Automatic annotation (TrEMBL):
GO biological process: transmembrane transport
Family, per entry: Belongs to the auxin efflux carrier (TC 2.A.69) family.
One GO CC term, this protein: plasma membrane
The protein's name in its UniProt record: Uncharacterized protein
Positions of transmembrane segments: 6-22, 34-55, 61-83, 95-113, 125-146, 167-184, 190-210, 222-241, 253-271, 278-300
Membrane topology term: Multi-pass membrane protein
Keywords, comma-separated and alphabetical: Cell membrane, Membrane, Transmembrane, Transmembrane helix, Transport
Subcellular location(s) per record: Cell membrane
PANTHER family: AUXIN EFFLUX CARRIER FAMILY PROTEIN, SLR1864 PROTEIN
Organism field: Thiohalomonas denitrificans
Length: 305
């Protein structure tokens, strides 16, 4: 696990360095937008399709999704209970709730699980995100962001869900899997080739997206509960819950690691769109990502995998 963290950290660091130096005049934000669009529209849907087409579905998928919903509930409930009694503005409250609730389940979770547990674990990350985190984010998460921020346009959660290409890839994979449709070798090779680019590009893009904005000391006083919830409390609850269920060590490790992922990078988009505190959220992503390089090996060890 330590080797995996070092490799992931190195790719993230390369993204950070690119953002600082902008080789050939290509700015970090421009490159990040291009890479994440490529991953989001083409590579990740291809990966979701091939993984869920071949993955065993059934009670395991329901278990992953159910525990993902539980993790989201723990994160949101804990953050709301804490911050409702604190003097934070509404834009800050919205940003803090998003940061404490939604983990970086795909953009960091998928690479970590694939390298740590093997290619079979990709299905855990995809199910955790696309069967739970993404639907909740684009429904309840959007409504929450609009409530605490300033919605400047009508909100249509269902329409937003329909515009998520990886979700379509996942749905197609599930239907083909359940229908018993064989996967042709040629198509399998093509989809796997496209999907193989997801891991390095995701980790590199995370580094491109990390930002240190505003007064770090002031923000840390507001952010430490988010860090505790996202990196310690939520995975602790999921670790306990998975221990109560009959499942293999690999599956348990994958679910716990997903719950222990840092704050979701894409939340910055919601904060910007609904005028929440972007600087505060960006700091949450930066700090939680850095600290997760320490906490992820701890949780992996706790699972005994």
């Amino acid at each position: 696990m330590i080797d995996v963290v070092i490799q992931a950290g190195a790719l993230i660091l390369l993204g950070v360095l690119w953002r600082v130096w902008s080789p050939s005049g290509l700015e970090g934000d421009t490159l990040r937008h291009s890479l994440t669009t490529l991953v989001y529209v083409l590579l990740l849907p291809a990966l979701a399709l091939v993984v869920l087409w071949k993955a065993p579905l059934g009670t395991e998928a329901l278990t992953v999704a159910g525990l993902a919903f539980a993790g989201l509930a723990v994160g949101f409930g804990s953050a709301w209970a804490w911050y409702r009694f604190r003097s934070v503005s509404r834009p800050q409250m919205g940003a803090l709730l998003l940061a404490a609730t939604f983990p970086n389940a795909t953009y960091m979770g998928l690479p970590v699980l694939e390298v740590t547990l093997g290619p079979w674990a990709r299905s855990i990350a995809i199910q955790y995100d696309l069967f739970a985190c993404t639907p909740v984010l684009l429904s309840a998460g959007v409504l929450m962001a609009a409530r605490y921020g300033d919605a400047v346009e009508p909100i249509h959660p269902l329409r937003m869900l329909m515009r998520v290409p990886p979700l379509w890839g996942a749905l197609a994979g599930v239907l083909l899997n359940l229908g018993g449709v064989p996967l042709p070798d040629l198509l399998d090779g093509l989809l796997e080739l496209l999907g193989s680019a997801v891991v390095p590009l995701m980790l590199f893009s995370i580094g491109l997206g990390l930002r240190w904005m505003g007064s770090g000391t002031r923000m840390l006083g507001q952010l430490w509960p988010v860090l505790v919830i996202q990196l310690l409390l939520t995975p602790a609850v999921i670790w306990w819950a998975t221990g109560m269920l009959a499942m293999g060590e690999g599956l348990r490790a994958g679910i716990v690691l997903e719950a222990a992922m840092p704050s979701m990078v894409l939340g910055i988009v919601l904060c910007d769109r609904y005028r929440l505190d972007v600087a505060l959220y960006a700091m949450a992503v930066t700090l939680s990502t850095a600290l997760s390089l320490i906490t992820l090996p701890f949780w992996f060890g706790m699972t005994g995998a």
